[in-house]
Amino acid sequence: MSNATHRIGASTRITGSVVGSGDLTVAGAIEGNIQLDGSLLLEATAQLLGDVAATAIRIGGKITGNVQVDDKALLERSAELEGDLTATSLSIEAGATLRGRFEANSDPAQLPPARPSRGTAPDRSESLPVTERVSRVAPKKPATVAASASTEQLALLSRTPARVRSDEQ
Q: Is 85 contained in some domain?
């Protein structure tokens, strides 16, 4: 595995799949799948129409497609994900949008193969702000995004201490 870090600038548009190792930062647009043996960072200006398979991901931009990571996923406040997400843990900042399902896996070796999204993921749920409630279910079952999350519920989901400010407090 390479420790190299690669960057796709904001003025770059790629049509086709991206496959590689090392970490990748994307500020531009990609229409195609990303398969990466490393971490993926999608900056706020990034747009991806396709599926992602990577070691870890930090989303600040927009993804229309399914995301499968072996480790952690972070949705920053500017993130928009329309598709299913599979990871061992998930952190969501207030303001992020997730339309789809989240599946928590405790063992990366047991991750199922990514399902192709055929370019766009079907709208399976409404767009909900991150301060919405997250119901914790047994591992390998999808978590449901519903209404009003407490700090404790988010901490259970991410398996790490969560610090969330809520307008309800």
A: yes
